[in-house]
Amino acid sequence: MSENKKKNESSSEESAESSSEESNEVEKKPTESKTITEAPKPAKKESSAEEEAESSEDDAKEKKVKIAKGALKKTERTQSPVTSPRLRKGMSRTKTGMPSKQAIQQMIDPFRYEARLFYALLFAFEVAIIIIYAIWADYDKSGNTIGYGYTRDVNIMIFFGFGFLMCFLRRYAYSAIGYTFLVSAMVAQWSMFLQALADWEKESGEFHIGIFQMVNGLFCAGAVMISYGALLGKVTPVQMLLLAIIEPLFYWVNIYVTVNKLEVVDIGGGMTIHTFGAYFGLATTWFLTSYETRSHKDNTNAYNADIFSLAGTLFLWIMWPSFNAAVADTPQGELRALINTFLSITASVLSSFLVSRIVSENRFDVVHIQNSTLAGGVAMGVAAHLNIQPAGAIGCGFLAGIISVWGYKYLTPVLSKKLNVQDVCGINNLHGMPGILSCLIGIFAALTAARNTTKFYPDPAEYTHLFPQGDLQAGYQTAGLFITLGIALVGGCVTGFILMLANRHNPITKSDFFNDRTFWNLPTDYEYNIYDKQEEDAIEMKEVNA
């Protein structure tokens, strides 16, 4: 009986415990539901000295990033075409702050007319060239390929040398190299036909293409590239096509008058390429120069861009003797052209470094080294194949370097401020004034040869071959110089006026000058690879992109 009583008591205790647990669970349910709806506030922890230091460092880093992003937004406002005053109104953006698809389309639309005109003009040009070549062109019957080595060197100078020389602008390298590539190829085709018009073979009614025609086509492209140097950063693709079509017309008119009719001496184009191209470009740029172009913040160089530009300088420097000797038609004249050019261009290197440091407060200016070091090659353009003596070649090159550096330092700012002639590349200093010096050297060489014929040219046949006008050659050289300047200035004014009219339908705004963004697809780092030194000097790229 006692055992049964104990069992009953234990069972009653267990049931009581279970009922109490159930009641406790029931009582806990509302509290749990309460915890779901109202999460308890975490208790504040006291920060240690280390945590406070870390938080202060994080705050400083965030502050730097905010400053950087603010500076970048400021840069975008002043540089990006999608935020230019013309397009800012009504522009939509995504949540990330990037321009929306509609805003990008709005950015492209203003140049849609220009793009369509570019398609039509380039396509029509090439179709016309195909038709012309199909009707009148044929291969040179002689089969002579001896001069192709010179042609190859000139090719490198035009496409690589000029292209890279002009990529010194910090945001314009694509356009500098790309337009050089396109326009030079276009001019080479166009020029060979224009040369045929100047030297038309009436007997056969067709023109023959050989090595001589190829190198002359590249010479014409060189003149156009010299002119492009003054227009750098201020033209649209359509304007470049118009320049490539119009300037060769005036170039070959000048060749026809000076070389074919007056028979001036100009073996390396000191008169008809460098002088003509420089003053044609200066006349053209007068119509395209404004306060916006002169004061633009991107009309400046950058360290990496200058390195590529120096590469172009070196290629031009190495190949320049080939440029001046490419069309020499006698072995002795060819040898003199190579030696005189080499001696002259080495002398211009020495004088450029010398004068650059004198006028730049005991430092070297990279602009002088990129350009003035080549002035000796230009100075030999007219008389490279003549007997001017090695010492004379060195003296002429040394003088050309001095004149070129002086022009960059003192004359270029005056032309821009006083005459509204913005010479972006300084073509007047590299090609213009050294080209005139080259013409003066040719005049002096003709006078000297006429007075001392037996001393400088013992063979009368050589003297007659080199100076077709005999003792009157100096006068014809002088006339050729003034005719070249006249045709270049008139042709440049006509071309500049046409380019100005072409820009009225799609005017280039200030944000578009000296920039690739308007006409090129660009990598993602384009907008952020140039910093404002005052605001972003100490900020790293990884912090900006964080």
Please render the helix and strand layout as text.
Layout (H helix, E strand, L loop, with lengths): L1 H36 L11 H31 L5 H4 L12 H8 L3 H25 E3 L8 H18 L7 H26 L8 E3 L1 H21 L5 H25 L8 H17 L4 H4 L8 H23 L5 H29 L6 H6 L3 H5 L10 H30 L7 H25 L1 H4 L3 H7 L6 H30 L30 H4 L4 H5 L1
Parallel strand pairs: 1-2
Mean pLDDT score: 83
Helical region count? Answer: 22
CATH topology: Ammonium transporter fold
What CATH architecture label applies? Orthogonal Bundle
Assembly type of the chains comes to: single chain
What's the SSE pattern? Answer: HHHHHEHHEHHHHHHHHHHHHHHH
Radius of gyration equals 36 Å
Structural class: mainly alpha
Number of domains: 1
Instruction: State the name of the first-level CATH class.
Output: Mainly Alpha
Quick one: overall form? Answer: globular
Strand line-up of the largest beta sheet: 1-2
Architecture overview:
- With 546 residues, the protein is an all-alpha fold.
- It has one domain: Ammonium transporter fold (Orthogonal Bundle).
- The protein is 70% helix and 1% strand.
- It has helices at residues 2-37, 49-79, 85-88, 101-108, 112-136, 148-165, 173-198, 211-231, 237-261, 270-286, 291-294, 303-325, 331-359, 366-371, 375-379, 390-419, 427-451, 453-456, 460-466, 473-502, 533-536, 541-545, and strands spanning 137-139, 207-209.
- A two-stranded parallel sheet has the order 1-2.
- Helix 6 (148-165) runs antiparallel to helix 12 (303-325) and helix 8 (211-231) runs parallel beside helix 10 (270-286).
- The radius of gyration is 36 Å and the shape is globular.
